[in-house]
Amino acid sequence: MITFSNVSKAYNNHEVLRDISFKIEPKEFVSLVGRSGAGKSTLVRLLIGEDKPTKGRIVFGPYEINKLQSHELPEVRRRMGIIFQDFKLLPKKTAYENVVFAMEVAGRSEEDIDEAAPQALELVGLGKKMRNYVHELSGGERQRVAIARAMVNQPDVIIADEPTGNLDPVNTWGIINLLLKINELGTTVVLATHNKDIVNQLEHRVISLDDGMVIRDEDKGKYILT
Amino acid sequence: MFTTLARIIKYGFQNFWRNGLVSFATILVLLLAVIVFQGMMLFGEIGRQAIDAVQDKIDISVYFVSNAPEDEILRLKEALLTLSEVKSVDYVSKEEALELFKERHADDPTISQAIEELEENPLRASLNIKAQDPNQYSLIAGFLEGDASQNIIQEVSYSQNQVVIDRLAKVLSLSRKIGVLLTLVCATVAIIISFNTIILAIYSNKEEIAIMRLVGASNAFIRGPYVIVGIVYGVIAVLAAMIIMAPFIYAASPYVSVFITGMNLWGFFLGSFFKFLGYNLLFGVGIGVISSVIVIRKYLEI
Ligand SMILES: Nc1ncnc2c1ncn2[C@@H]1O[C@H](COP(=O)(O)OP(=O)(O)O)[C@@H](O)[C@H]1O
Ligand SMILES: [Mg+2]
Question: What pLDDT score was predicted for residue B81?
């Protein structure tokens, strides 16, 4: 489903990612770990087509991400659910409107939206607060909205970059459990994080990055950096 | 396709309402630009009519010797009318000249009486020639000099007024050029200010645009609502400008008609209301839409 082949990325002649290769199969739950500055976010940006690699090939389903033109990007993005540390919700909109926006953008019908948007918000536990504006929600609640938005179009993969970075431990586990639930329902999940506790309890595949290189790639892996 | 358009329009209006303060400020700037534009249109019309009025007062008069045969004069009139430079030729016969003279001096008993006592009509027949353009009088004068009817022409008034007419022609063409230049300068300033205001307003939405792209919004879906907002801004600004300007035009109209006889500013406004509205909408909506498209293009880097 996702393949990185000999991918490198340099900013001003400084290599941030070096010769990265891995493959992610459908329905996997993969944690991408490494200390701050290891290159996790850069890797995520390349995967979602936000930035282009200096070298190498990135394939996602039928798309060759490194060769996409900017007008082809929206189509690809609709097949990814993307979650960030800072939520990236549309301000001046309610929780419900944020989820609806993603559906409208994908060209879903009104009937479809009326049914699926409340369902997605119920699933993340925000059924009662769907009509709240973003600024009326706590950090944990905002991230739940972002997850509802990410999954509502039934994407092929959920890509989360430090989704719990701004949250307390209780909310952190709430969010991680949601990601696990979505994965159990059949969606691939890629989770970039430097949170050791989470990774060690998950017992899923772990790809470890250090200084822009993959130093470890293990099933049921642990967070080990040496 | 239709659903997408409906959604784009929905978000356009939503952006408009939820960005209340920005919308208000932008409309205010656009309103000023539209008022400048309206002012230019009105001053342009006043200027045109003023120039026309002055131009209408310029003419060449050809006076004929007292025994000039009428058919000779009429032949000359026809010949003049074939010239492309000539706008109109009026024939004033000796009798008509006398009538006019009497009318003019009806209040003056001494002159009236003197006229009555005359046995012969002392006035001369004349042709009053108007040119299409004040620069063309010298050409017409030249034509008269070369014409076969020299012997019946007693006097051409142009030669005496030549300097005045030439100077007036220069002033008129200069004031036209200045008018066009002023219009261009004002319009440019208004457009630049409006552009910048709208660009600033959209700039404040930079973050939002990035988020829209993240969830897979197409460029049309992102740009569309801004274009809708641009249209709404333009329409509101134009309607507000019309409502604000109308009473001023109505109040100014009598004063204008004192300076330029025959000019009815209010009548012009009412008479060309839809043309006026159309141009204004083109201007206001044009600025709104074009600046939105420019700034969004810059952000989407396409
Ligand atoms: N746009 C950029 N320009 C220059 N350097 C960058 C840019 N983005 C990231 N970097 C550098 O790349 C390295 C990896 O950053 P990042 O991918 O954000 O790491 P992580 O997410 O693992 O903390 C850092 O040294 C960072 O300074
Ligand atoms: Mg990071």
Answer: 84
